[in-house]
Model the fold of this input.
Amino acid sequence: GAVVSQHPSRVICKSGTSVKIECRSLDFQATTMFWYRQFPKKSLMLMATSNEGSKATYEQGVEKDKFLINHASLTLSTLTVTSAHPEDSSFYICSASDKFYGYTFGSGTRLTVV
Amino acid sequence: GEDVEQSLFLSVREGDSSVINCTYTDSSSTYLYWYKQEPGAGLQLLTYIFSNMDMKQDQRLTVLLNKKDKHLSLRIADTQTGDSAIYFCAVIYNQGGKLIFGQGTELSVKP
Done:
């Protein structure tokens, strides 16, 4: 079946620095990738939708300058958390979709900002 | 608007059946999903159902869909301690094909 590789699985960074999270679709080309954020014991909140070669569409309330999304190819999307603060600490999950496999999720990235 | 609701907790004894319920507001979704999340892990697709179906059974899992009431349920037969996890229902909204999740139901299985 389809596999989505998400890296890193865990990252700890200092306040004010930027962190990049990668999401790769293996063995298939993802027409669309989605980025979610999950708070402890909470649901997944959709942050943005990205299509290859075009600008990401952000959900209401998500700061596009803080959460930079790049979808340079059909197999890779990146989320960069810029000038991270402790309140950005969360679990981030990506999802890649195509017409054959539907939605496939990465294993998530636990971000801790200290 | 886009709204998917689930009860937050369910506790059952090992061997019993578990039923997790979900309601949604947008009826345009062609697919409805159930995902499982274990602590600290990503999402595992358990099963899905097409909107033109009323029921789907897959081994211990049974999904029931009531389109009129916009109600989806997941029944786990012979629940095991390994089934303890958070279960999310998710529906696709036609606007951009976004997958919207319920709050998740934390299933606790007691031996």
About this structure: The mean pLDDT of chain B is 90. The two ends of chain B are 40 Å apart (CA to CA).
